[in-house]
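seq/struct pair 1
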Amino acid sequence: MNAFNRWKNNFILLGLIMLIMLAACSPQTPESTLEPTETEVATEAPVEPEVTPVVDETADVPTVLMVTGPRTDPSVAYLVQPVLRSLAADSGMAFSQEESISQDQLTPDTRVVVAVGSDLDIPSLAATAPEVVFVVIGQPGVTPTQNITVIGDPVTDQRNQSFLAGYLAALISSDHKVGALVPSDSDQGEVIAEAFILGAEFYCGVCNPLYPPFNNFPQTEALSSANTQDGFQTAVDALKLSGVEVLYIPGELASSEVLDYVDEQGMIVVGDISPAMPYKNWAGTVKINPADALSAIWQELLTGTTGMQVSGTITLMDRNADLISDGRLRLFEETAADLEAGLILPERMP
């Protein structure tokens, strides 16, 4: 009986073991194939694709055009170009620079044309393009019209330059011995001579020298612009013999031949047009800077206010620090500011 019971228990145990082994070997349904219940279904909202704005690269961009001519003073173009480029960028406009201008270059995108130089026929061009704003710099004889704004005035600018050239010459002279070459064949000759003398006297009064030669200063000598390549020596020698130490040479007389000869004579030079090459005796260049005036009226130009005539400011370029110290520069700048503000009259009262 006991043997039978043991056999029975072993048989049951063997059966249990076989059932466990069969359960372990049976294939399981992959989890990924299980169907989710209704409560497990996600209810996320559909995601709409992001819309990228389309930029029309062919859209018209307003353009500012700067034009120079063969006779443009490079120093004036140097002052205007970076300021105009910055004004255009700040206004969301494109900038372009050309060395000539014709009606074909005025595209529908052209909004402002700034012409720098005396040999550009802007009035005729402006008459054919009334929708374009024109700004004229350094063109004697051009007057403001409905779409032309003029920066500077030839007579006023020359008078101010000559006055400050005389002031600067006296300022850097050791004994008030200053002089000027004056163009004898120019309408501006008398203006240059008078303004230069008044500018020197504004600084030194009677300008009496302390050391010989005891001549009257300031002095001037007339020279034809046709003689700036030859025949100028007589005028320069007369000033040198009188004891002139600092000489003002207006731009139309400042040929390389004249400048070379004056350099040989050991005289210091003040000019109103930058020389083509550096000279050790060149003290500085008294310039009318139209860039500040352009900045001041820029928004008016863009809003349609044209037909103006405004004055440029006066600046000193090409400064020789060995001849014009920081203190003398400060005096020059203060006098220039007073002149621009109308506190100084650079001409004789009638």
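seq/struct pair 2
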Amino acid sequence: MKSLQSIFLSAILLVSIETNAQTNKALNSAFIQSYELEATKNYEAAINSINAQYSANSYEMNLRLGWLNYLAGKHKESVNYYEKASKIMPAAIEPLWGAINPLTRLESWSEIEKIYGSILKIDQKNTQANYYLGLIYYYRKDYIKAKKQFDVVLNLYPFNYNYMLMSAWTNYFLGNKNEASILFNKTLLYTPNDKSALEGLSLIK
């Protein structure tokens, strides 16, 4: 015969399982509803559907709210949710990439630079982060730093149009005209009669 203690524990376990099942069902419904509302561009209602089940410790909810708030034009709120998601999962680059969208709208270039740096701490050879960080340095005319980032992506993808062309121009402005000439000519192999590459070669001559 079961003791009263084991009966009591079994009852608690059953209640816990049922409660968890109900919570999962409600959460699934909230996400489904948010997708349906997003499809109709009713972003505020989509946000409300997630907020009705919101838990600050949920990576998935914070990530979803980051995206929905971005779509709704609430860029500061979007960044806030992406930051919360990033704190919950520090090794994830997903929320870092997500935050770049609203930060771009806010023109927070220094914050975007920091995020690219954070991504590269997790994934040193991330091509997009290296390339876009290189572009930030290039347009600041910090060609030494730009070259460092472009070198990474060019070594990974030696015949990529953007990487060859930006590396060529960076080397040109650094005075590395031989390297620039080689890269401009390689760019022409990829895109014959490319105006930018031809302009670069004309300046070298």
